[in-house]
TrEMBL record:
Domain called AB hydrolase-1: residue spans: 43-148
Keyword Hydrolase: yes
InterPro entries membership: AB_hydrolase_1, AB_hydrolase_sf
PANTHER family: HYDROLASE, PUTATIVE (AFU_ORTHOLOGUE AFUA_2G14860)-RELATED, MONOACYLGLYCEROL LIPASE
Enzyme Commission no: 3.3.2.10
GO molecular function: epoxide hydrolase activity
Lineage: Bacteria, Bacillati, Actinomycetota, Actinomycetes, Propionibacteriales
UniProt protein name: Epoxide hydrolase B
Alphabetized UniProt keyword annotations: Hydrolase
Key word Transmembrane helix present: no
Amino acid sequence: MPVPLVPEPERVLVSERIGQLFHEGEGSRDRLEFTEYGAGERWVVLLHGQLMPRRMHQHLARALAAGGMHVVTLDLLGHGRSDRPADPLMYSTTAFAEQVVALLDHLGAEQAVVGGTSLGANVALEVAVVAPDRVRGLLLEMPVLDNALEAGILAFGPLLFAARFLPVSISALRLVTRPVPRGLVPFWVGIGLDTLDQRPAPMAAVVHGLFFGRIAPARRMRRAIGAPAMVVGHPADPIHPAADAAMLADEMPRARFVRARSILEWRVSPARLDGLALDFVRGCWSAAPASADDPRTA
């Protein structure tokens, strides 16, 4: 007898478009590049980790867009295919938050669920502080807060030293990794290669600007964020300790903490977290936005 075929899960195709905007900073006009997935008015903005490209969120963006969201992934200044000035004063979480608001203005999006990983999570928090009326919700993975200070110094201090005083090492690494065809290697290997594709001066400027600036809003500011939030943390990662994610979820009045099984879960087995993220984002858009009179935001 013939063996019955088990149908594959339904795949929903979504449109993908690359765009750009020019952000007017202090004495500069910088080009930022982004990718749109899907369509509609239920906007989601996803932000990458430090030195990483926006492509790291490609899978999640496609999953959310297949669920009916209009998703945008952005290369922040100094990252990916956006401009990379060599001035450390151009880089801070506040400056990055202003770039996200400029993106929303460019797209004509009144509000969005803003999310990100590591640096991207911290920038999303800044957006909720500088433009709370533009934030429908926060989808935060691996925020970098109080408990990550020592590990962050150990991880990014040598990078800053190498970029400043041994720039040939950064340039040599770029020469080796840049020619590798990204389509011939596994997805996350390609993301790693993209992350290593750095120029010494802009890389040093990014690390310097973030290293010596405010890495995240102060605790009193975080406690005043009224937007709903899903905060994802995982064990065994000193730079992104689960304690920081859990602490943030406790501080914010409408936040929920989700413990990932490991740092690899959302990379290699994303179905559970994708589903939770989609449910959360749908909930943000189905609920009425919080108002200044909402007691949950007091």
